Input
Amino acid sequence: MRSQGLIANTMILTVTSFITRTVGMISIVYISTILGPEGIGLYQLVMSIYIMAVIFASAGISVTVSKLVAEELSHQHFENVKKIMTTVFLFGGLLSTMICFLLFIYAPQIALFFIKDERATWGLRMLSLSIPFMSLSSCFKGYFYAVKRVIKPASADVLEQFVKLGLIMLLVNLWSPRGLAYSYVAIGIAMTIGEMVSWSYMLTFYILDYKKYTTTVSKNSHDSKGLLLRILGVALPVAAIAYIGSIFMSLENFLIPIGLRKFGATQQTSMSLYGMVKGMVLPILFFPAAFLTAFSTTLVPEIARANTLRHYKTVRHTTHRVLHFTFILSIFVVSIFMSYSHEIGVVIYKNDEIGPLLKTLALIVPFMYIEVVSDGILKGLGQQVSCLKYSMIDSIFRISAIYFLIPIKGISSFLAIMIVSNILTCSLNFNRLLEITNINIEVSKWILKPALTATASVLFSKYLIGHLSHLPLPVLVTCITSILLSALIYMILLFLVECLTPIEMQWLRKSIKSFITTYL
Output
């Protein structure tokens, strides 16, 4: 595995992930502005049902395809690539169509029994129509990740997000005066059309790319039964993780407002608090993780390829570098959220209540980000069963704690549960990764130095900006200027304390050069 190839693909996904997250944040901000905290809370419950349906229809498909296709291509078994894709297409298409039909038919019962609001019915039905397109798109994405042509699914994601954003702003603006029910229908239609456009876009590229395997002779070809067992061996644990996680997550989302009402909050207040945490604060926390999401996505086929070829030194080297950069990024993000939580809440949502919630939950950022990366690497190494076990442990803890503590302590207990839960899952995944790869943690370089330099950069930035407070600058300008200045100072200090070395920068420069040569 070439480091430059990994970074080139990661850079593509980083840019597109940043764009899609930005567009997604704009959508969330727009929807929250139109619907309000209560409306965004109900929207989150609708999306919980939808996401659970999507997961049941497509979980494990992308990871399975990217892992197995990467392994077959490393041995030049081209005929097996075609068999894998055909099998996954058929299975994914049938399963997703069935899930779409069930959600559409039983949407009224789901809205009344789980969401307890019939206004969600037609929103769920419109969303259900997107499920087959999303499931088949996962097949395409897994394939393109495996063949290292990530620009195609990445550009499809960008196109999809812009289509969704445009339609959401148009349709929600037209229909929201009629009530929340019409707003959810508008969102459902916009998301379905976005998924259809993305699917059509990737289908075109897949057909063009797939032709070369019809004229290439394989060195070897395994029997269909053996390939099916391999597909199930990868897909079932990954899908089981997703199924269990989605069920528990949906149960958690339904229990939170119920627990808040038992604590004494009204229906409107409980839904508003839930909406602020799930629909407003968490998207902000995950927004800076575009780079890590890109790394996690590209790591599965790259790590699988290296592991299959027994390039264990490459696996350790890549894992070491990725974890190092993850700690550097996550620690800086914590310092920003802790220092500028109020400003960020006011700038994005124009809501003073977001700041305290954001500041409290900022503590979980390093654990969330490390878990994202560790999970991607473990799946590339075939550790899906371990990931499933850790997911079950975390889910059982969260559901139990939410059920017993929120009715007694309210929203503060939910924030504490989230912090403990993220520490737990991060520790389990990270410890398993260390056992498998035999890498050593460099506490000073990974944690202590980044923490000290991040603190110093933020404090110095606030000091400088504070001396300009007499100028009539808008909050948005002050916030952006402070964060950019902090980032610049942080990068300089990282080099001064040798947290980033010339060797690492040389590796990065070669990767950037490879990216420019290959893709620009």
